[in-house]
Amino acid sequence: MKLTGAQALIKSLEMQGTEVVFGIPGGAILPVYDPLIESSIRHVLVRHEQGAGHMAEGYANVTGRPGVAMVTSGPAATNIVTPLCNAYMDSTPLVVITGQVPYQAIGSDAFQEADTVGITMPVTKHNWLVTDAADLPRIIREAFHVATTGRPGPVLVDVPKNVSNQVMDWYWPDSLDLPGYKPTTKGHAKQVKEAVKLMAGAERPVIYAGGGILKARAAEALRALAELIGAPVVTTLMARGAFPDRHEQALGMPGMHGNYTAITAMQRADLLIALGARFDDRVTGKVDGFAPEARVIHVDVDPAELGKVRRPDVPIVGDCRLVIEEMVKATRADRAKRDWPDLSPWWQQVRGWQERFPLRYEQHDDGPLKAQYCVEALRDNTPDDTIVVAGVGQHQMFASQYWHFDHPYTFVNSGGLGTMGFAVPAAVGAKVGRPESMVWAIDGDGCFQMTAQELVTASAERIPVKVAILNNAYLGMVRQWQELFYEERYSEVYLSPDLPDYVKWSEAMGCVAFRVEDPSDVVPTIEKANEVDDRPVVVDFRVDYREKVYPMVPAGATNDDVIVGPEVGEGGR
Amino acid sequence: MGGELGSTHHILSVLVENRFGVLSRVAGLFSRRGYNIYSLAVSPTEDERFSRMTIVVDTESAPIEQITKQLNKLVPVVKILELAEADAVEREMLLATVKASAELRSHVTELVSIFEAKILDVGHEAMTIMASGTPGKLDAFSELLAPFGIVELQRTGRIALPKLARRPKARRLRAVSGGS
Ligand SMILES: Cc1ncc(C[n+]2csc(CCOP(=O)(O)OP(=O)(O)O)c2C)c(N)n1
Ligand SMILES: [Mg+2]
Question: How much is the pTM?
């Protein structure tokens, strides 16, 4: 069968099971958009390429399947660099197709030429420049394979226009040509034994669960291991939902804005069982002072993570799910033979911290509306499995702190890169991936302004996402740092509560929109928003700009120096 | 281009797929992770699908283990051998243009023959010489040439293969452990 490169590309995407492509056409990708008309693949027409990338990420995060985006050359390709970098940092599987000027014109500064492969090399797991249409099916297959196996990540395939137009003989490759790519999946049995030995002697163990748990679909295995050994479990920003927050062993989020108990339990632990986590600086604080008494078991599919920040006593390279399952088996066998230390003194200590240092804020009936209260009201007035998509800033931390994530794949956010503007498009992508679930973006007023136009996409495509803007009229997180560390010298952080008018703007984009100023209107408005199911909804919550995110470990400090925040009633507001 | 490697230098023999952009992937990885390359030589191998890069890295910037693990993550990197100096045969080539007026020429040619070098080009006031050998030998050679006045000097950077008798000793870092 003779096909053009463009037809072969679309057919290859179909062969890979692609159900949706997020994108926007242009000159160099024109040939590929033609066969898309006949394809079974759904296309979501975005308003900016950054939106296409973040939608693909949102889709991938909630479905576990790779997100696919397609854009043209030059400015379109550079516009999608941010999502690629974001996906690279958060290990999200993406396949991005870019158009390129004809092969003969590459290097001539042709119209809309950019060195896409060169530009994206540092922010992709791998990328390809296709030089012959006959290579397309193989490269697309390799691209999906690389994106989704081992440590997942974004890949990019750059397709020159002449290659799209070139005629080739269709085939579907039955093998891949990747001699340098063989991810390890199964953990080393001897290392698993060593891990069990350490666990069997620990009196103050903590399970440090990272985003790798979700990537490996290991939430069930994690729960089995945790319940078997009885240790407390912390879930990082990237792992929220990997272990149910309402589980009695759950301590919630550690790190710079984690809760006191999660941070301190790690500090005092004699064993950290790090599963799919990478000892990020936002979790460890000053590395030298991090968990000083702890031995470390570190499981990760990426060997380069083992020993990158903290040298583990027992490193295990492998897929988290497979390794944890082996750990469960070996633990059962070991516990049948001997008694493990009683963890109740440890739990007593942990419960003491929980009682003394809960998360706290104060919402007065007649006082200014608090962001934390809005998050709690959303949490308590939406279905249990609602998907929360956060932007970057104070609102993101409030969302992670105050929501109860009881199901995996219900929290989507930009962890590693901290990309403002992530929430709206990622929420759209999440809703496309899981249309039966309610999707609430919890966004900041600053973030919202970066990518709000994707609500036009959502309206046009009837993708009924919901957006809560926690509108504090400030670049709040930056303001918080200026207040605490720059002597309240506020530099370029004021945004205004009503410029733009978020309600009018949202309505102009085809959304239903509400504004809430009074605490008593919060719940009724959420209820109204929940009833809208045929178009996007935006709620402009006017919240107190003075509120800060606590607890906080200042940058450069060790995790022993947690600032828990002002006492309630004395400036706790 | 010191002959004896400092304790923070390691030789990596990296087998890579012979594909578009591989050198820039490797070089980019070193620069973005802040690793120092001391020397780098790329050459084709017996199998046309692969090239071999001999990279001398300075591990002051990062532990060798982290460098090899990150390198292994590059999809076109097939295999990495870490070669200790004692376990490898290494060679390097040097080209030098040296001042050599008629009266000094014989002194230079004497050195050339001692070092089994070759004269590639002769002018009125200078000559261009080629030498190959271990990096240490080339160090000595260029030191002895220096008093005559070196106009230009270039070295290729070392290439290395494991010594046969000690082959099993060379630490093999397989792509298997790092292809993710
Ligand atoms: C693209 C981008 N630019 C700048 C920053 C730096 N930054 C981090 S948080 C923040 C403020 C976010 O403001 P807003 O969305 O209103 O959230 P808030 O902190 O007020 O809840 C800024 C500017 C960033 N993370 N990303
Ligand atoms: Mg704000």
Answer: 0.94
